[in-house]
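Handout, section 4.2: multi-component inputs.
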Amino acid sequence: MDAIGRKRWAIAEGHIPSQSSFTDRALISHETACILNAAAASRTLRSPSSLPTAIRSAPTGLRYRRGALLHLRFNDLTEPSPVPRDTDFSSVFESDVPIVVQHTRLDSRHAEVSLLSTTAYGES
Amino acid sequence: MDAIGRKRWAIAEGHIPSQSSFTDRALISHETACILNAAAASRTLRSPSSLPTAIRSAPTGLRYRRGALLHLRFNDLTEPSPVPRDTDFSSVFESDVPIVVQHTRLDSRHAEVSLLSTTAYGES
Amino acid sequence: MDAIGRKRWAIAEGHIPSQSSFTDRALISHETACILNAAAASRTLRSPSSLPTAIRSAPTGLRYRRGALLHLRFNDLTEPSPVPRDTDFSSVFESDVPIVVQHTRLDSRHAEVSLLSTTAYGES
Amino acid sequence: MDAIGRKRWAIAEGHIPSQSSFTDRALISHETACILNAAAASRTLRSPSSLPTAIRSAPTGLRYRRGALLHLRFNDLTEPSPVPRDTDFSSVFESDVPIVVQHTRLDSRHAEVSLLSTTAYGES
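Output:
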């Protein structure tokens, strides 16, 4: 699969609520940066977190492939220090290959789940 | 209608919850890639999933048209294999005509509905 | 204020739920395209839907201005026909001046409100 | 850290609900523009609202840094006048250095929290 993306990305907004209504890891308030390295799909597909390549033909000549993904959960970062909760932060990513970055937050401070997501800002 | 868009698109984030609070198809937890092929509007409009073209004049000289849409629901993909639930994935689209791709998730794991959406990352 | 934006925009995703848990117009399930015409701010500011211009100096030399806005609610479109509910659609905007378009949905099918929003795809 | 971003940004959508289900500042209905000035990280890191720089090596050669952030809460603006509630508005930012802008709303009109967020539209 050919590379797609840019090498430098920024997420201006970051905020991890300290409270959660659930103890299930998937439902604890968290933020992630999903980082797609499309060119490395054949290699990354061997890792547990990735999926078999899928190609789908659609009427318009569209092809679809599942890509290789690094799911970076900000809650889990420990170096050089954990990300403080209830505190605004932002992040910048630099890669030596083209990548695509998407930012997502799950907020479960109350008994429901709220989501936000956006493609980050990328630059060559 | 003239073409608008790019030929290669990537969605870094993907995650379909296995749980849903509803059995109505519209409210089952799902992810979609909405794929607009503006140039094919006159043809696609004949399909059930599309709409008559609308043109609206606004004070600033703005014209508005409803476009032709392929609504790709990741839950429904079966080739070469279904998308596993509760698993991170990402996707890359390649088209032989310019398209525009938007990513959306509906999460109904609990008794409410949560939504996220973003324009995907596009490249020529 | 100088112009900012592009002249052609596309929103791939569109879907207005037919159900709402509220009768207040602001809380009825709806979709909007918010269309900013920054260059027309001085003129548009005379309309009821816009705001006085604000300029704010921040430490980094940042200036902030409230802009001129056309809030296009898809639910209200009647020409050439209303937008069907519970049906996928997409939209393309063409303007004779640079604009910026942002897509938003409020979904109140259940007793809570869900939101999604994204900057649309723009092209010169 | 090298600069990343653009000098002019626009957020087409803006709307602050006048109602909130909570009195906690973090949960009052609000909108923010998160403004990242990556180049100023070393300076901005001295301010209370920013974080120590973090660099993380990932398998793909990815480096991650927490950046310098200005969290502009539209609810708090007072010059030249407060932003009216329940009213559509939009905003334009001009900076003398490259920045990245992300728009976020928290809506707590009902007893749950709804979120939306998107990278704004940027231009050189």
